[in-house]
Amino acid sequence: MTRSVSRSVLINAPADKIFAVLSDARRHPDFDGSGSVKASMKAPDTLSMGAKFGMRMRIGVPYVITNEVVEFQQDTVIAWQHFGKHIWRYELTPEGVGTRVTESFDWGSSRSPAFIEKMKYPAKNAVSMEKTLVRLKALLEE
User: Fold this and answer.
1) pLDDT tens digits for 84-121?
2) How far apart (Å, rounded) are the C-alpha atoms in residues 76 and 112?
3) pLDDT tens, residue by residue, 35-45
4) Strand partners, 121
5) Residue 54 is part of which domain span?
6) DSSP states of the chain as a string?
7) Do 103 and 94 contact (CB within 8 A), yes or no?
8) How many Å apart are CA 84 and CA 130, to the nearest integer?
Protein backbone atom coordinates (compact mmCIF):
# COMPACT_ATOMS: atom_id res chain seq x y z
CA MET A 1 0.00 0.00 0.00
CA THR A 2 1.33 3.43 -0.94
CA ARG A 3 1.27 5.77 1.99
CA SER A 4 2.24 9.00 0.32
CA VAL A 5 0.44 12.00 -1.08
CA SER A 6 2.07 14.70 -3.17
CA ARG A 7 1.40 17.87 -5.10
CA SER A 8 3.59 19.78 -7.54
CA VAL A 9 3.93 23.15 -9.20
CA LEU A 10 6.14 24.62 -11.89
CA ILE A 11 8.10 27.60 -10.58
CA ASN A 12 9.82 30.02 -12.93
CA ALA A 13 13.10 29.96 -10.98
CA PRO A 14 16.27 27.89 -11.01
CA ALA A 15 16.50 24.91 -8.67
CA ASP A 16 19.36 26.40 -6.66
CA LYS A 17 17.31 29.49 -5.78
CA ILE A 18 14.32 27.36 -4.71
CA PHE A 19 16.52 24.95 -2.77
CA ALA A 20 18.12 27.85 -0.90
CA VAL A 21 14.69 28.80 0.47
CA LEU A 22 13.73 25.20 1.31
CA SER A 23 17.03 24.55 3.08
CA ASP A 24 16.69 27.64 5.28
CA ALA A 25 14.39 26.65 8.16
CA ARG A 26 13.93 30.32 9.05
CA ARG A 27 12.04 30.73 5.74
CA HIS A 28 9.54 27.88 6.30
CA PRO A 29 6.85 30.11 7.88
CA ASP A 30 7.07 32.33 4.76
CA PHE A 31 5.63 29.63 2.50
CA ASP A 32 3.78 27.25 4.82
CA GLY A 33 0.23 26.87 3.57
CA SER A 34 -1.08 24.91 6.54
CA GLY A 35 -0.91 27.84 8.93
CA SER A 36 0.72 25.61 11.54
CA VAL A 37 4.39 26.63 11.10
CA LYS A 38 4.88 29.76 13.18
CA ALA A 39 8.66 30.26 13.53
CA SER A 40 11.94 28.42 13.35
CA MET A 41 14.19 28.09 16.32
CA LYS A 42 17.53 26.45 16.87
CA ALA A 43 18.33 25.89 13.22
CA PRO A 44 21.59 25.98 11.27
CA ASP A 45 21.87 28.68 8.60
CA THR A 46 21.50 26.01 5.91
CA LEU A 47 20.05 22.56 6.40
CA SER A 48 22.08 19.51 5.38
CA MET A 49 21.90 15.75 5.85
CA GLY A 50 21.38 14.95 9.53
CA ALA A 51 20.79 18.58 10.53
CA LYS A 52 18.28 19.11 13.31
CA PHE A 53 16.01 22.12 13.55
CA GLY A 54 13.24 23.19 15.85
CA MET A 55 9.97 24.79 14.80
CA ARG A 56 7.32 26.63 16.76
CA MET A 57 4.02 25.16 15.63
CA ARG A 58 0.35 25.56 16.32
CA ILE A 59 -2.40 23.08 15.54
CA GLY A 60 -5.05 24.01 18.05
CA VAL A 61 -2.45 24.61 20.75
CA PRO A 62 1.12 25.90 20.45
CA TYR A 63 3.98 23.40 20.61
CA VAL A 64 7.60 22.98 19.58
CA ILE A 65 8.86 20.13 17.39
CA THR A 66 12.36 19.04 16.42
CA ASN A 67 12.93 17.77 12.88
CA GLU A 68 15.91 15.98 11.35
CA VAL A 69 16.93 16.09 7.70
CA VAL A 70 16.79 12.47 6.45
CA GLU A 71 17.28 12.98 2.70
CA PHE A 72 19.51 15.57 1.08
CA GLN A 73 20.79 16.04 -2.45
CA GLN A 74 21.87 19.62 -3.12
CA ASP A 75 19.38 21.45 -5.36
CA THR A 76 17.39 18.24 -5.91
CA VAL A 77 15.87 16.67 -2.75
CA ILE A 78 15.41 17.67 0.87
CA ALA A 79 13.28 15.79 3.40
CA TRP A 80 12.84 15.77 7.15
CA GLN A 81 10.98 13.93 9.85
CA HIS A 82 10.28 14.30 13.56
CA PHE A 83 9.65 11.72 16.30
CA GLY A 84 6.51 10.48 14.49
CA LYS A 85 8.79 9.28 11.65
CA HIS A 86 6.56 10.46 8.79
CA ILE A 87 8.47 12.40 6.15
CA TRP A 88 7.97 15.76 4.48
CA ARG A 89 9.87 15.84 1.16
CA TYR A 90 10.58 18.39 -1.56
CA GLU A 91 11.90 17.22 -4.94
CA LEU A 92 13.12 19.67 -7.57
CA THR A 93 13.28 18.79 -11.27
CA PRO A 94 14.36 21.20 -14.02
CA GLU A 95 11.57 21.65 -16.55
CA GLY A 96 11.87 24.05 -19.47
CA VAL A 97 12.91 27.45 -18.12
CA GLY A 98 11.73 26.64 -14.61
CA THR A 99 11.73 23.95 -11.96
CA ARG A 100 9.00 21.49 -11.04
CA VAL A 101 8.70 21.35 -7.24
CA THR A 102 6.97 18.32 -5.78
CA GLU A 103 6.08 18.29 -2.11
CA SER A 104 5.09 15.01 -0.53
CA PHE A 105 3.87 13.71 2.80
CA ASP A 106 5.03 10.12 3.26
CA TRP A 107 3.60 8.28 6.24
CA GLY A 108 4.85 4.82 5.20
CA SER A 109 7.55 4.97 7.89
CA SER A 110 5.26 6.54 10.50
CA ARG A 111 5.04 5.11 13.99
CA SER A 112 1.24 5.24 13.72
CA PRO A 113 0.03 5.13 10.09
CA ALA A 114 -3.46 3.98 11.09
CA PHE A 115 -3.85 7.06 13.32
CA ILE A 116 -2.70 9.34 10.49
CA GLU A 117 -5.27 7.78 8.17
CA LYS A 118 -8.06 7.84 10.76
CA MET A 119 -7.45 11.56 11.38
CA LYS A 120 -7.55 12.10 7.57
CA TYR A 121 -4.14 13.80 7.60
CA PRO A 122 -3.28 12.68 4.05
CA ALA A 123 -6.26 14.59 2.59
CA LYS A 124 -5.75 17.56 4.91
CA ASN A 125 -2.05 17.69 4.08
CA ALA A 126 -2.78 17.53 0.34
CA VAL A 127 -4.85 20.73 0.66
CA SER A 128 -2.11 22.36 2.74
CA MET A 129 0.55 21.34 0.19
CA GLU A 130 -1.42 22.98 -2.61
CA LYS A 131 -1.49 26.21 -0.60
CA THR A 132 2.19 25.87 0.32
CA LEU A 133 3.25 25.47 -3.29
CA VAL A 134 1.21 28.52 -4.36
CA ARG A 135 2.94 30.56 -1.64
CA LEU A 136 6.39 29.18 -2.54
CA LYS A 137 5.82 30.02 -6.19
CA ALA A 138 4.73 33.58 -5.36
CA LEU A 139 7.71 34.04 -3.05
CA LEU A 140 10.20 32.92 -5.69
CA GLU A 141 8.64 34.63 -8.67
CA GLU A 142 8.20 38.06 -7.01
Assistant:
1) 999 999 999 999 999 999 999 999 999 999 999 999 99
2) 29
3) 999 998 889 99
4) none
5) 4-141
6) ---EEEEEEEESS-HHHHHHHHT-GGGHHHH-SSS-EEEEES--SS--TT-EEEEEEEESEEEEEEEEEEEEETTTEEEEE-TT--EEEEEEEEETTEEEEEEEEE-TT-S-HHHHHHTTHHHHHHHHHHHHHHHHHHHHH-
7) no
8) 23
CATH of the domain at 122: 3.30.530.20
d(CA 57, CA 83): 15
Give this prediction's pTM: 0.94
Alpha carbons 62 and 43: distance in angstroms, whole number: 19
Other beta carbons less than 10 A from residue 42's beta carbon: 11
Q: How far apart are the first and last CA of the chain?
A: 40
Distance of CA 12 to the CA centre of its chain: 19
**Tally of domains in the chain:** 1
